Amino acid sequence: MLTGSQQQRPSASHRSSSVDVPRSTNRSLIPTNSRNNALERVAQNPIRFHEENGMMVPDGYTSRQIRPAARADVVTMARAMNRDFAPKAKAMFQSEIDAARDAIEQDLYISYRQPGKDFDCYRIGSTGKCFCGHTLSEHIKFTGKTNRLKCQSTNCVCEAFAYIPSRPDEVGEFWLAKRPGFDISTWRAKCKCGHAHDRHETKFKRCKECSCSNFISNFLCAACNTHWEQHETFFERGSEREQQKLPTGEFYMPFAELPDMQQVILTGSDAHMPSPYLDAAPRRSIQQGGDVRGRAAALQTQNRAAIGYEQHTNPSTRNDRGSNASNRSPVRGPLRGSHRATEE
To answer: Model-level pTM greater than 0.70?
Structure first.
């Protein structure tokens, strides 16, 4: 009797099959005809498409055309997402406010924008940063003879002031300021090579750290969504801007077209604007007690009226259905319908 490794193996004639079954590395069976079966099923039941709204849509599916909002209210959304919206907005636009005031007083408008555009991406003041790393106040003053303002700093070869963003929010990187320990003064606009603008030559824009031959921004303008090299720095008098139909005077101030938002950045308060939280007013009234239903309805009416909600001052004109219609607030809105003033 043979034992261990000496046991006789069964011959090929005693095996269950004479065909070797392919096995994968994990020793599981591989279905050799699965791909063929899948192709056969696709051939027998092809996916059919139909055209809808200019797109090819599989049969059995529907498409919906996405259109931009007719009345997009980004200010209300931003206020709802940031409890300290007003102070942050004021701090963000303070440099532009100061620059606009100086421009109006001196009749010298210094702006950063794309050539041929009818709006300014940024209003530049004395603290505006040049590509060379120095501020506008460190360059020669504008006299009207030339727009090429040379830098007066020692050993700087900058021959013309060229504005470059100096804060992350100017390029849409708002989240950086929220990082613990982040120092905004150390932030620098970078090239696609990964090095900051102050690590490139001022005159020829070649990188000092690598073989990069020209500064190509790796960021986009937060105002127009284009690259830095597509912008120019303009020095203009009021009469020159008026000929180009560009805003001057009080219309040069930030958010001149949005008076409510302009008041926010000028005062740092949004108390004059309706609450962005539609349910905040009724819930505060509930917690305070007293005439809950009446005060909640009044506050809700005031807030919703400011953002276009339909009002019904007489409950009898609402055509409410149900036995508890008299317990509802006399305010109806297109989003929520009747709203109970007593519910949490």
So the answer is: no
